[in-house]
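Researcher: Please translate sequence to structure tokens.
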Amino acid sequence: MSEHDEQEQFPEHPEQPASPEMYEEYSDEDALSQEVPESSEPVSTPQSASGGKSRIALVRLREAGNIIAYSGPDEMKAGDKVIVEADRGIDYGEILEIPTEEVIASGKKVIRVMTSEDLRQIKENKKQAKDALQICSRKVRERKLDMKLVEAEYSYDKKKIIFYFTAEGRVDFRELVKDLAKVFKIRIEMRQIGVRDEARLFGGFGPCGQSLCCVRFLKNFEPVSIKMAKVQKLPLNPSKISGICGRLMCCLFYEYKSYKEFSKGLPKEGQSLQTPRGKGKVIGVNVYKRQVYVEFEDGFIEKVSFPSNE
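Model: Translation complete:
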């Protein structure tokens, strides 16, 4: 890999001109990962309207929507499927986390934990979204647009439908949106996503054999660099350190932080180390066991343990 490949690059797109109210504005590649606007104020645990305690929860909208901080009843917990307030109507999502630190408030609330009727409605919405995707695909072909449709999602109340797509560059989809608005008679949102978001939408299994991290627990996509793999002494073979999306594996980012923490106080390979046996050269480091292998002039190799840095 060349030097300029060390830091992953993420496409940037210019802003889309204003469009009629029915049509959603152009979304950046990482829009699925964005949280609420920075203008919102950090909040701590608020009081509910009834006077009882409420708390803040990070909720991922629908299957792959934005992650937004909602206030709700004190008994809600991570993993709950919930119905929430939306900009126009109501929507659904899953609580990813009950943060212990201050977060950015959206001003919206969790309405309730999903009921069996809610689940039935969402299942029906997903079925109809597949039909909508076929209609949109046909319109894309008619317009000869250079884009690949990935998925479609209805909001819970079916007042909005979101079409996710990938493309090499900027796509002028304004006429397409008008076509779709005439068909569906609801708010249309076209959202361009990147390959990592596409992998999260479809799901799958990583080289470790587990479900993809982005599906199971990751809230945002962080930039990942080759340096993180080098520090962890991983093979710099793209097939070994890339996920199914073709990008560097996300686990390199959060494992890198743990690796750096465990490495504190340990000598590096090639350094000289004074031991009770004498002075030798470090030829190997086991970061997680906090052990190093030292070679002496006579060829003898000794294992030296270091105390935990807790």
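Researcher: Any highlights?
Model: The chain has a mean pLDDT of 77.
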